[in-house]
Amino acid sequence: MSDQQKVKRVDSKKFARTSAYVFLISIVMLLVTACASYYQKNFDFNHEFERGDLQQALTSLEKNSKQEQGRARFLYMVNNGLLLSILGRYEESNEYFEKAFLFGEDYHINYLNEAASYFTNPSVTTYHGEDHEHLMVLYFKALNYLKLNQHEEALVECRRLSIRLNQLNDKYNAEEKYQRDAFVNTLMGIVYQSDQDYNNAFIAYRNAVEIYQNDYAKMFGMQVPEQLKYDLINTAYWTGFQDEATKYKEQFGMQDYEPVKPDAELVFFWHNGLGPVKNEWSINFVIDPVANNGVVFSNPELGLAFPFQLEEDDHKKQSDLKKLQVFRVAFPRYVERPAYYNTGSLELDGKTYALELGEDVNKVAFYSLKKRMMQEFSKGLLRAAMKKVAEQSVRKEDEALGAVLGLVNAMTEKADTRNWQTLPHSIYYTRVPLKEGANAVALTLKADEEHATTHNFTYQVKKGQTLFHTFSSLESTNAPYRYY
Amino acid sequence: MPKFLLVLSLVILASCSRTVTRVEPATVIDLSGRWNDTDSRTVADKMIYDLFDSQTFKDYAKQLGRKPVIVVGPIRNKTSEHIDADNYVKKFEMVIHNSAIAEIVESGDFRDKLRTERTEQQDFASSATAKQFGKEIGADLMLFGEMTSETDTNNRKRVVNYITTLFLTDIETSKRIWYGQDEIKKLVKN
Questions:
Q1: Which end of chain B has fewer surrounding CB within 10 Å, N or C?
Q2: How far, in Å, CA of A229 to CA of A431, rounded?
Q3: Which of B18, B34, B74 sits opposite A166 (nearest CB)?
Q4: What architecture does CATH give domain A262-276+337-360+425-484?
Q5: Given pLDDT bands bounded at 50, 70 and 90, which one contains residue A3?
Q6: Residue A111 touches partner B, C-beta closer than 8 Å
Q7: CB count in 10 Å sphere of residue A396
Q8: Is A263:A236 a contact under the CB 8 Å cutoff?
Q9: Alpha helix (H) residue ranges in A398-480
Q10: Contact present, A425 and A473 (Cβ < 8 Å)
């Protein structure tokens, strides 16, 4: 080999190394700005929404319209949908919710991004949405149609909900996972009932009662709402299922109750507070080599231990892993935004109708993440291990470059903190019988005995009509956010 | 490493494409184990066969001296699934209509719409073309039905037995003329 050739080779090696440095440093620069959580990144919008400045929040969203093509496009669509719904722009709201629904239908995993996420962090993947978020899309969409008095369209959303619930039910084999939604079944019953399809309403209510009694009681400590009991008996009776009506009257201790059809009805939904926000937390893990080519990632303080088995011919990887000792892994966790109000009721002609808890969105979110935490741990550890192995391999070739990669790895270590943050903390509902004509209804929300607020509404209603109203109170307490 | 990349690329290629295939409507495809199009078709075929073979129905038609007129009444669903009975009842009606063993008159919402139209014709259509009141054909028989299901589950296994019952009842005498029942039992293993 001639000297000239040798010089050329050294030059090209130098060039490659310099390029690698430039590339890695650019990534570092990029990541320094990108290490905020999803909530912090959208702070303006979140802050405006939380303080109830909805027009300004909408303007902030519109300014970021390029997010509609981005990796968190699902969240952009649902935030728009929800905000426009609160603002009473139901048709526009449903355009966004429809896009979000189709996104969920057509979504497929991009394995290239998935693979990339193991060398960086999960935010390089497209956010798919949590199970309950996809159900909530259809819940809001159905409500928008009901408010627009478009029952046929609301029924379409009901059928979609039924399919989604079946898919959710089939998705998990393990027991005690959130795989059935009592409130969504209740909503389906309400929609069918408003269409005088009492038979389907009865089926939906009966499924809802069963889920409240068996799943929700255990998972979220919830009871069957009283309103649901009445609705179940009413629809059994109106379908002609006398035996079932009698059976449920006895079961609920309501033997004296006789169903009466009012002139008209109001179904009132109260969206209380704001749902939880995803944040990240980090755990330090230690690697212990064990017999048969295995390694164990453990954190004795938290009692966590995850064994990994390496292939026989993976000696190199194993020896690299054994050198790692301690490293940090970031995981997502929810942070609750406790709702300011605790109870709500409606009053009409001196009679009070309590708003009852139908869905604790906050608890559903926490529970779902808790149940898949093992999966999150495994993913996080695999990610950390792959990054570290890559770093060790580079260090062998070039110590400085390896150190830069180590820095990049540390800075890119980040959990996926994306979630639908404009959802309510919890949903309450009740049904109020109305008389034909004008009805003055007062809504009272209470934080405690001394702090209450009242809103007055007048509903004009025709005979046989069912009106739908949602009221959103976005207030959260000033108490420190609760972690679980 | 190259082996790993090759597998990864294959996975990416295999997972990025969605395929849609048109299949014959009669093809049996069971995915979730819940009630599906095959069940609707099975019920319709079985019930029609039962009705055509029914001696009591033939005797009733013979005694009447003309084709009986049927109106479709409520088909109640007591299962835990939202099953649209129209899926098989419409098939059932169509075969009855085409086989000319009975006449079918409209029921429910559709009949109400016809009556509204007839009422409006009295005001807005020419007297020569406005349809008259009191000329509807009164049904002789009403078709009722009920769907029930029994479910037994243990761990990842589920047995569901769907029972569909249809019956034709004489509107004048309340006598049951025909009774058909079909059971579909499914074992689902997850």
A1: N
A2: 12
A3: B34
A4: Sandwich (2.60)
A5: very low
A6: yes
A7: 10
A8: no
A9: 399-412
A10: no
Note whether B82 contacts A241, CB cutoff 8 Å.
Answer: no
**pLDDT, tens digit, 9 for 90 and up, residues B34-86:** 899 999 989 888 888 888 889 999 999 999 999 999 999 888 888 888 888 88
Token pair recorded at residue A397: 């070739």
| Facing A239 at nearest CB: one of B18, B76, B156 | B76
> What is the least distance, in Å, from the CA of B140 to any CA of chain A?
23
Contacts of A15 (CB under 8 A, 6+ apart): none
ipTM: 0.71
Residue A6 has phi, psi (to 5 degrees) of: -60, -45
- The conformational region for residue B132 under phi > 0 = left, psi -120 to 50 = alpha, else beta, is beta
Distant-in-sequence, close-in-space partners of A454: CB < 8 Å, separation ≥ 6 = A442, A443, A444, A445
Supply the pLDDT for residue A336.
Answer: 93
pLDDT in tens, A278-329: 988 888 777 776 666 666 777 777 777 777 666 555 566 666 665 555 677 8
Cβ(B101)–Cβ(B52) below 8 Å: yes
Query: Hey, are the CB atoms on A206 and B80 less than 8 Å from each other?
Result: yes
Cα(A73)–Cα(A103) distance, integer angstroms: 9
The residue in chain A having the minimum alpha-carbon distance to the alpha carbon of residue B74 is: A239
Give the residue from A166, A160, A161 showing the smallest Cα distance to A179.
A166
So where are chain A's domains? 1-33, 262-276+337-360+425-484
Distance between CA atoms of A203 and A225, rounded to whole angstroms?
Answer: 16
Is pLDDT of B100 > 60?
yes
Distance CA A453, CA A447 (A): 9
Buried b (16+ CB within 10 A) or exposed e, A159-190: ebbbebbeebeeeeeeeebbbbbbbbbbbbbb
Query: Of B15, B81, B156, which is closest to A111 when you measure between CB atoms?
Result: B15
Distance CA B24, CA A316 (A): 54
Cβ neighbors of A137 (< 8 A, separation 6 or more) are: A78, A81, A97, A100, A101, A104
B103-150 tens-digit pLDDT: 999 987 789 999 999 999 999 999 999 999 999 999 999 999 999 998
How many angstroms separate the CA of residue B34 from the nearest CA in chain A? Answer: 9
With a cut of 90, say whether residue A213 has pLDDT above it: yes
A170 closest CB neighbour out of B32, B74, B77 = B32
Model confidence at A252: pLDDT above 70: yes
- DSSP-H helix ranges across B65-187: 86-99, 108-124
Quick check: A351 contacting B, CB < 8 Å? no
Instruction: Select from A455, A481, A480 the least CA-distant residue to A469.
Output: A455
Greatest mean pLDDT among A59-73, A82-96, A153-167 lies in A82-96
Q: What is the pLDDT of residues A438-460, one digit of tens each?
A: 999 999 999 988 899 999 999 99
pLDDT in tens, A13-24: 555 565 555 555
A370-390 pLDDT, tens digit per residue, is 888 888 887 887 887 777 777
Question: Strand B157-170's sheet: what is its strand order?
Answer: B103-105, B69-77, B141-154, B157-170, B176-189
